[in-house]
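Entry under discussion copied across for reference:
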Amino acid sequence: MGRGPKDIQTYLPGDLLVVRLHGVLTAAEQQLVKTAIPEKGRDLLKQVRTQLIELARPLMEKMVEEATGVSVLSLHHDISTTSGEEVVLFTLAEMPAVRESKHK
């Protein structure tokens, strides 16, 4: 989508996988949401990001399934044009087996 986020956090509460991305807006996207009519810029940005997520959905679901060993039932997405935070929520078929994280 142009460049990577500044920070990524993941959470695994039960059968949900939450991916929280910080600092995802490019300089061009930041300018777009500051247009004379901010609502139009915001709506356009959200439409484009939603379309990109939908195009990448099969690959993202495959990556999650390979990492968790569990199939993905649904994917939900939103982006804040104010904070530059993006959230992707995967609903899994069941709670995956987890192991202790090496990074703390």
About this structure: The two ends are 29 Å apart (CA to CA). Strands lie at 7-11, 16-22, 72-79, 86-92. The chain has one domain: 7-92.
